[in-house]
Structures are given as C-alpha cells and as structure tokens.
Amino acid sequence: MEGRRTGGMALMGLRERQKANRRERILEVAKARFQTDGYAPTTIELIAKDADVSTVTVYNYFDSKAGLLLALVSESDQLLIRQLKTMIAQKPTDLIDAVATFGQILRRHAMRYLAKSTWREVLSASIQEGSSDFGRTYLELDRVLVDLMRSMIVDFQARRLVPETVDSDALADCLFSLQNIRFFQFIADDNRDDEDIDSRLRSDLKALQGLFSTPAH
Amino acid sequence: MEGRRTGGMALMGLRERQKANRRERILEVAKARFQTDGYAPTTIELIAKDADVSTVTVYNYFDSKAGLLLALVSESDQLLIRQLKTMIAQKPTDLIDAVATFGQILRRHAMRYLAKSTWREVLSASIQEGSSDFGRTYLELDRVLVDLMRSMIVDFQARRLVPETVDSDALADCLFSLQNIRFFQFIADDNRDDEDIDSRLRSDLKALQGLFSTPAH
DNA sequence: CCCTAATTTTTAGAGCATAAAAAGTTTATG
DNA sequence: CATAAACTTTTTATGCTCTAAAAATTAGGG
Lengths: 217, 217
What we know:
Two copies of one chain form a homodimer.
Chain A: H1 14-37, H2 44-51, H3 55-62, H4 65-74, H5 77-89, H6 95-113, H7 116-128, H8 133-158, H9 168-188, H10 194-213
The structure holds a DNA duplex.
C-alpha cells in the first residue's frame, strides 16, 4: 500500500528511478504551489513547467488536477495515523471525550496541511471520483481511520467501559461517520472554527446518550 | 422562499415574463437532457440551443453547469417534503424505524429524479460551492429537512416515547447528519442499494443504543 | 416615436482534459 | 556494441467549461 518510499531506489532500473523522480518532483512543486498560491490559481501548465515535464505527463501520472491533489493528501496519512495511535495508547477513560479528540486531531492535521478552500476540492473530488483510481486511494484512508476507531472501542470494551454486547464494527463505523460529517461541515464553512465543531460533536453524543439511556417505552 | 411558481405572471412586465420564461425553458431542457443523456455528455451549448438562448445566457442565469444542476434539484423539494410530512403524520411509534424510513424516502425520491452519477455531481458541487448563491440554496434544503426531523422528535417526546430531557435540536441535527452521511455513501457507490443502506442505518442506531443503554461506569 | 437602461449576444481567450501521432530513451538481444 | 523492441514523454490537435469585454437588441418611460 505505502510502498512508495524511495528507500530501495537503487534496486530499480534507471527507467523506474526516473519515473519515481518525476512523480515526486511533480508532487513537490504542486504542494508548494497549492499552499502558497491556492488551488485554482495554480495551473497544470505551471506545475509542469516547475517540475520540468510536459503538461500531458502530469495527466499521465495523476489523471487530473484533482487526482494530483488526492495523491498529495494521501501522502500525509502516516503522520495523522501516528498521532491518532498515540492518543488511543493513552487509554482515555471517557468515550465521548475520546471521539471528540479523535475529530480534533483530524481537523488540526488537515488545517496544518492545506487551506479549507483546497480541502473543499479534495472532498468534492473524493465524491466525484469515488470509482476512479485516485478516488479509491482516498476512500482507503477512511477505512484505515475506521479501523483505528474500532481498535479504540475494543480497548474500551476490554476495560469494561463499554458493554461487550455492542457490535464494535457497527459502532466504530457509526461514530467515525458522525465525526466525519462534522468534518465536512467544518470544511464547507469558512466561518466554523475548531471549537465550534468540537462542541457540536459533543452535543451530538450527549443527545444520543439522552435518547437511549432511559430505555424507551 | 418558494415564490417561483409562476401563478402571478400576469402582473409582471413583459421583460420579467420573458426572463422567467427563459429560466424555466433552460431548466426544462436541462432536466430532460441530464435524465436521458447524463450530466457530462450534456454540453451547455446543447442546452442553450434547445432553450433558444446563447450559452452565455445560461451562465448569466445559473453561474455554472453545476449551479444549473443545483437549481434543478432544489425545485424537487416540495414533493419530498410532502412525503416526509405524511410519514411523520402517521405517528410512528419506533424512533429507529422512523429515522430509517426518513432515509428511505430521501433515497427513493433521489433515485426517481436523477441517476447516481448525476447526484455525485450535485453533492460534489454542494461542497465546492458552499459559499456561492446556488450552494446556499442547496444547504437551505438541509436546514428544512433537519426541521422536519426535529418536529418528528418533538412529536415523539409529546407522546412520551422519547425522554423530554433530551435536547431535540441537537438530536435532530445529529440523527439527520447520520442519515445524511449514509445517503452520501449510497450515492458514492453504484453497487450499494437501498436495502444495504437501510440496514446500515439501523445497525448504526442499534449500536448507539447498545452503547448508551447500560449507563457506562 | 425616441431615448435609455437592462439584457442578451457576439467575440475572444484562459484553463482543464483527452486522443493520436511523433520523438526520444531505456532495456534487451544477437 | 550496435540494433531492435518496449516504453515514456512530448507534440499536436481538439472539445468543453467558464470569464470578460464590446456590440447589438429590446422593453418601458417620457
């Protein structure tokens, strides 16, 4: 999956090495341009010129401008995953807090990497190109994050802080999804800040707790 | 809000009438083309020719191709809202069932209107153009749907089927959001059918019930 | 009936994206 | 080591979305 680290580049033939080089050069200049000039003002032609390739080559590597962006984003996975694992390893005792923190780590990571307007392009593209190669790569990240959420829940269950009768798969998927749609809303609106979404997510969970804590009927 | 019914068209001057006519003509031919030929193959030039205006006029009225699509979608609101109100008026006794039905009505309405691939464009555009005029119009629909969900919850509370201590605003927003992200997933994947999502939504709610029904710790 | 203000059309151009042919390299083979 | 084969990249051409400006049209008031 993540085998694009160039550690073993010496083993590759020249052709492969050049290919990896071009790919990395394109990603590098694209990232720099997107961060400084923004997504829309950065033209493929400019990226191609910076990376010293033709515009068509950029398309050969990344299918589309949005595909290039998605490739860029999925490169930042590792750091995010590490941060989330660290949080889980600290054995939080309150699930609501833990889910809220999970969301917060995601949002802060996202903001450190790209501007909201650029993230709108990412989310937009991930829906549109869900069946293309690059769309799938992005969806893969979601799968990994759900897995992390599940491992966290299983850990809560092991400590008897969550009933063992609960389906951890379903709960992980559900809690991640809830967190994810709040992330969407965070990205969609420039005026929504981190705290805003944090309290929203907490009141979501409080409301659900209130709904189910007194067995209905 | 919904004052674009042309009932009072006789009161308008000729200029206004022509404008309304052009607008409706464009929407009409666009809808027909999107439904028969699909979104991508339908060019603005073709729509303009069908509606007997210039291509630039289409842009004057709807900003973009996606904006035209969003305008089209928000015209189908009324029927959807009526269907949801009918369901709520039937006083369902199980909240989980009711939320699942809510989602089902939404999905079936959507599928009656446009193909999944076209809906992907809609969702994609609604994120991207969240701050533009047409983006706001679409977000407005979400607000109306959350209101419906809230009225349903308040009704449950009046019948003592949901604790009155629960914040109905927060719960409505949360349950709608959960339903909404499952709608997103329904649209994103051509291979996901209605039942698939229905059971997913139900297991979401079951999992949450299981989480909170035994007060943790 | 003419003027003006609003609206549409024309025109030109930038940028994204794709397809096919041409040119250039790398790798494999004798 | 030269040459052929395989693979990439570049060139070239084209279609579409979208914007901006000037030019043409047309409704409505005096």
